[in-house]
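Dear U.,

Please find below the material for section 3 of the report. The protein was modelled together with S-adenosylmethionine; I have listed the sequence and SMILES used, followed by the predicted complex structure.
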Amino acid sequence: MKNQDENRFVTSYSKYSEDAIRNWVKCRRDKRISRFFAVLLRQYCCPIFQKNGLYYVLDAGCGLGHDAQEFSKAGFNVVGVDAVKEFILYGRKMDSRFRGNNGKKAAPQGRVKFICGDYACSDLITPLIRRRLFDLIWANASLIHYPKKRLTPVLNRMASFVRPAGLFAGTFFHGKGEGVYHGSFVPGRFFARYLKDELQSHVENAGWRIRWIHTVANEERRGRWIQVIAEKR
Ligand SMILES: C[S@@+](CC[C@H](N)C(=O)[O-])C[C@H]1O[C@@H](n2cnc3c(N)ncnc32)[C@H](O)[C@@H]1O
């Protein structure tokens, strides 16, 4: 991460990590996976997993690791990366509870590895992909913390983490502009908002072919969001 804006979210999330954890746990409780997540799993990931018997996901900005757990339940191998230590510690704790069950596996789970750091940092990712490139990079509401001018380069770097025809899927704030937001339970975070055409240009200029792009309202999160699935060109 290069400048003050890009580091800002780490400071804010760490400072308010207890509030963030409480809030996110409450939001996820009793909720099924989102419609978008279900489509991604069913239509895009599972057919490849069934064919190859292996599927590797990078959950970029995994937060508490809820989505990482869902991928794991599907049998995929998952690396969850987040820059906030408190979230990674929570994710690891939940994962060991989930796997507990007196040593017996409750479901055909894949592995989850939680790592604290910047998912766009080559020093962190290169050792992971030395043995195998990822099939999917999942960035659920995490690239929203990058300034717009950095989005294309970051998406382009992500393309180098996935296999040929591998996937990127993510969700982005819909709207115009960017800046620091002082409301909400984690004040002081930097957010970028995109219009659909604008986001589509960033994704395509970074070396991806769009397979799915939709604007939705109040689906997984409140407000308007853009959901994207793209394939590496
Ligand atoms: C709004 S939260 C979403 C968390 C999770 N993906 C979810 O959907 O519940 C955004 C997360 O992205 C993480 N994040 C954003 N940019 C990051 C980066 N460059 N490297 C690592 N983590 C990042 C933040 O620390 C935060 O946990």
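For the text of the report, you could mention the following: The mean pLDDT is 92.

Regards,
Y.
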